Amino acid sequence: MKRFVQAGLVAALAVAGLAHAATELVIATVNNGHMIEMQKLTPFFEKAYPDIKLKWVVLEEGTLRQRVTTDIATKGGQFDVMTIGLYEAPIWSKKGWLQPIATDAAYDVDDLLPAIRAGLSNEGKLYAAPFYGESSMLMYRKDLADKAGFKMPAQPTWTQVKDLAAKMHDPKAGVYGMCLRGKPGWGDNMAFLTTLVNTYGGQWFDMGWKPQIDTKPWKDAISFYVDLMKNYGPPGASANSFNENLALFNEGKCGMWVDATIAASFISDPKQSKVADKVAFAQAPVAVTPKGANWLWTWNLAIPSSSTKAAAAQTFVKWATSKDYIQLVAKEQGWAMVPTGTRKSTYANPEFQKVAKFAEEEKKAIDSANLTDSTLPKSPYVGVQYAAIPEFQAIGVAVGQQMSAALSGKVTVDQALKTSQTAAEREMKKAGYYK
């Protein structure tokens, strides 16, 4: 009898061990502030769902993209939950690489901001749950603008911004007039530069899918950018992306910064920013047209079709992107730190409105971005700061390297555009878009 009891105990322990192993979720995510906060809140999830353990793989943005793209395309099954962008969601859902998110009444899918919900849906089903959403906008030191005698318009022109950068620029005092992305990558420098090109009247491809990089709007936009940063940017700007510029701004070293709206909560937080009480916000600057001047992006949690732990993955994804999660962050970190840009209820919350002086500008920017109409000439692609086609990643990376080289003075703007045009044409012809 004792032997049977022991055997039963061993079997029960083995089953328990298997059950435990089966519910370890491997989550790939990006090393941005909100994602790091989500990781810190793991104990709250594991307490609520003791049969699920979370294992985090936190990566720099470019590395994350490479790893998750390779894993999902090869059905590697390395990750149970992936952090993916607005670019990947429609492409991957159409390929059948993602499992639909099983939303219920408590999740309240109708509470998601319309532009973001639409971008993550395919044939009426949500294929990725938005963790936070963003557009881009101008963030600036109001004290320095006041000192220069400048009153910021609701949506300034790039010419006005350049004039103000010249007045704010004081390298001896450790202040640079303008901080902008320079680090190469389709989601790094090219996210910003595409919006600049858009507002100068440019586009990635014409209606016949022919690349339009070696054109006047691109030359005007990139020449302006290189000149602006050479004269009024920080040293080594060609290596800076979001996190580097955020650190500079928080140290009081940027007069102005055009980047993701999500930065607003960090730069206005006195715990993180030395200039929290001096910042103000405006819409992204415009040149020839307001079209496509500010981007639209979301970081989302998605479940690859290859995951064998779908039920546990669905539980986690819904938890991390729910109204309750936002309340949890507010309780633990304060309303100024909640992930924004996803839910109407967040912006309607009086507690959030009280602390988030950026909320109105952020929501205005997100609502104004249009994924299907972001360029002055008609374009065949969906996306503001990217083109939602599989070939865009390679093209964006190649062009990003050329633009970074132009910024650092290794090549001229003309050379960078010509090389980029040739690379883009080669890629699009190879993929059969045109002959």
Automatic annotation (TrEMBL):
InterPro entries, per database record: Bact_solute-bd_prot1, SBP
The keyword S-adenosyl-L-methionine is assigned to this record: no
Localization (cell): Periplasm
SUPFAM superfamilies documented for this protein: Periplasmic binding protein-like II (SSF53850)
Keywords per UniProt: Signal
Signal peptide boundaries: 1-21
Highest taxon of source: Bacteria
PANTHER family membership: ARABINOSE-BINDING PROTEIN-RELATED, DIACETYLCHITOBIOSE BINDING PROTEIN DASA
Family affiliation: Belongs to the bacterial solute-binding protein 1 family.
Name the UniProt record assigns to this protein: Sorbitol/mannitol transport system substrate-binding protein
Organism: Variovorax ginsengisoli
